[in-house]
Amino acid sequence: MELKAHFSNIHKVIIDHLEQARSDIVAAIAWFTDRDIFEVLCKKARSGIKVSVALIGDEINQGPGGLNFQRLRNLGGQVTFLPPGSHDAPTMHHKFCVIDRATVITGSYNWSQKARSNDENITVVTGATDFAGKYLDTFDSLLDRTGHGAPVVADADAARRRLEMIRNLILLGEQDDVASHVRKLRPVADVLQVSRIVVALENGEYRAALEEIDAYLRRATAVVAAGYADIPRLRFQLESLELRLESLSDEKAELERRLITFNRRHDDALGDLIQRLLKARAELARLLAAERDNDKERIEGEAAAREAESAYQDYSTQHEELQNAEPLPKLDEEAERELKALYRKACSLCHPDKVAEEKKEAAHSAFVELQEAYKGNDLARVREIHAALAAGGLPATRSTTLSEVEALKAAIAELEYAIARLVAELKAVQESDGVRLMDAAGATEADWQRFFERQRDTLEMELARIVSDIQAEQTEEIGFP
What we know:
Layout (H helix, E strand, L loop, with lengths): L1 E5 L3 H10 L4 E6 L5 H12 L3 E7 L2 H4 L6 H6 L3 E5 L12 E5 L3 E5 L14 E5 L2 H16 L11 H16 L6 H8 L9 H8 L3 H15 L9 H61 L4 H30 L8 H18 L9 H16 L3 H15 L4 H4 L3 H26 L2 H9 L3 H33 L4
Parallel strand pairs: 2-3, 3-4
Antiparallel strand pairs: 1-7, 2-5, 5-6, 6-7
């Protein structure tokens, strides 16, 4: 499974993935007014791709000037308008698309013209059949609201009684009679959280099944049955948020890693020249301030000189630190791919915002060490951290361990806050002067080198001009004509 966060040209990213669809497209989008995306769906439906869309049946989607969804229907597409929200059925706010049952696009982006100018982001998850299946189940549940689906009714009390019977049959050694009960549990296994029990029984692992059944029956006495129906939905919502958090964390870490590499290359190529230039600027500013006759102009000149001197001193400190730092290991293409892949896997195992409170400290320590190793191109250390985590260094995420509705809701609220915070941090990095300079330099290290060469020519010309001005000021100061 691969994750990728996107912050710009989102409608083009969506279109590119839709264009690659080979069998089916399923989308639940609250508001859909983007004509370019709509045209791609119509083209795909015309070519025989199965297209299914669910959206809110309100004035935005069905009013004058909206998209002609009947045209999509005429081409073989399925369009379902969900009723606007009510107390019993809140408004559908989903924004996801599943392509070929393996690629998921999710996030904050509606398929609308307005969204193109909004501050939004999406995560694209590829190679994720199991995860995509959960989104498809969610889509089916949306259709149930309009009578287009066939919901499975989960009776927690009946399941509890059936598990008690299975337990007794196993204890009596009558395992042959278990299969019929398992068949009746299977359709509601996910809803009632008995999937592990069903798998164990189907695999003949009766001792493990008994342990799981006993644990389930103990919990059942303390959990209100009505709450069960919400648990799978909330777990899935939490899992989706965890994946979005991962993709944003990956994006931020990769951007910071590239920026560190760029700054090192920039300093190696231009650091000495920039230091000389800043020193010359400070010297010229001091000379100009000293010759001011007007008090106000002299004060302003002295302030400018102090600022130029401070810029020179700050840069000199930074330049010295970079020159004395351990050189970053250079990775070939294969090692670079391995580093990114292992980092993403390790990040998914130790992100502190995904684990229970009592494990956050251990997760935070592992996460910080992983970040440092990744940003330092330390492939060997990233391998070690990933191996330790994969061997069970930290527990499963909250989306797989929490089993109470209120705990899940609290975890969702916490993760939504963490995502909002991370998006703000990532945008701050994206909009920083360092990233803007890196983007201007190009996408590859070869581009950077050409950029540095151009910059060197410009900086040398400026330095020559300032040195000439300094010499002119010094000559004038000692009275030579």
